[in-house]
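Question (not urgent): is this output format expected?
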Amino acid sequence: MSAWLSHTSARVLEFDGLLELLRGYTSSPLGRERVLNLKPSADLAWIENQHQLTSELREFRRVGGRFDFAGLLDVTEIVEKSGIAGAALETEEIRDVLLVMDRAAEWREILRAQLSNSVTDESMIGYLALGLSEAAATHQADDTEAIALVRVPFREALELAVAGELPDMLTVAMLLRGYHMAREGSLPGAISRAMLG
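Got this back:
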């Protein structure tokens, strides 16, 4: 972020009051810290990106999505401690680091489409999560869900999609979108290389 507004402009915009209001909606120390570090900006590209992210999150919430950041801890000191030669982390400290790692580092909307443009207004939104790690608890399926988890290499899943062997259209669309992004260089290099084989 760049092109920060002057302190006087921020005061005229009542920016501190806005931060205080926003901080009240945070559910973790990390969120509060992030809000306190926000600054008003005159950088148009940054502003447009923030508006885009806000629109995506509003739509995500509208269709029933949610994020659980409650209890997300600041593990900076623990991580620094782990780098000290001869230092040992307590069990609780290791647990706290693992809890933070369970969350994805980045969520990015990569696909939005109508499932039917005549019968319903149902839409599908596909997100790409980067920086994922293994979750501590497994998902408990709802009574209405019929989910089978199968781990396969990306190329194998893509071939199944192209051959018409995957019945779920969102899965097919996301695989094709991911493949296109990898070919266009829109994904981090290591991920693109793994996807393209």
